[in-house]
Amino acid sequence: MTGETFGYLSYKLVARWLNLDELRDILARNLAWAAVKKCISKATVFSNLDELKGSLKARSVIVVGPGPSAEKALRELCAALCSKSVLVVADSAYSTVKRLGLRPDVVVTDLDGISIQDLLRVANESFLAIHVHGDNIDTFLSLICTMLRTSRGVLLTTQLESKPPLKNIGGFTDGDRAVILGSYLADDAVHIVGMDFTLPLTKAWHSDPLVGRIKRQVALRILESFLCEQAGRLKLYNYSYTPLPCTIKGSASCSKSPQIC
């Protein structure tokens, strides 16, 4: 994904909807770029997605979102697939994975949905895909050198034009960005859980209900286009409460209600 794009919606369009500060986002990307150059790092800072893909060698990927359907779906999936699949977890969904005693292979985060304590813990055993923008740059700058000293490897992403090693991989929220990343990593199948865009809002999406609704609409629109592009290359299974186009429904029970899932 190149240029100032979220994959299928322009940055400028989404910035207008959400009143994003483009200059602050540009400053954040540039400050992050400079900070990474100064850190003493034992971790691999991936310059492209192929390097991360080569480190994982994934035929099957499970992507976990923050929705309430995730825990039930993961219990079903892990009976057969977790031991032989790469687990890509979107930010606050880490709490579900942790509760089930699972270890993520990749955590996709913009540093606002997973506690710093959990982030430092998971960095020792998982790859991190850290997204940088104007609202999290202070947190990023305070943590990045520690992350690079302790993590297995780090992929840095931006919502603006790529500035290596920061890369625009597409996506807007941690959830849809995790699906995009997981689809790139997989050679055969992607199993999507917890992407419950049509359920009532929780703080996992945003503390401001209006902003949260717009973010979910943007994420869903991005995925609607992206998944249909991938359907010819991958088997796409959706275990989420929200239907996603061009995917196969992965669990009959999750089509009923979020309470059952």
Automatic annotation (TrEMBL):
Query: Which Gene3D superfamilies does the annotation name?
Result: Thiamin pyrophosphokinase, catalytic domain
Q: Which UniProt keywords apply?
A: ATP-binding, Kinase, Nucleotide-binding, Transferase
Q: Which InterPro entries match?
A: HMPDK_MptE, MptE-like, TPK_catalytic_sf
Q: Which GO terms describe its biological process?
A: thiamine diphosphate biosynthetic process
Q: Does the keyword Metal-binding apply?
A: no
Which Gene Ontology terms cover its molecular function?
2-amino-4-hydroxy-6-hydroxymethyldihydropteridine diphosphokinase activity; ATP binding; kinase activity; thiamine diphosphokinase activity
- Residue ranges of the 6-hydroxymethylpterin diphosphokinase MptE-like domain? 45-198
Which residue spans traverse the membrane? Answer: none
Q: Is this entry keyworded ATP-binding?
A: yes
Looking up PANTHER family in the UniProt record yields: 6-HYDROXYMETHYL-7,8-DIHYDROPTERIN PYROPHOSPHOKINASE
Protein name stated in the entry: DUF115 domain-containing protein
Q: Provide the species name.
A: Fervidicoccus fontis
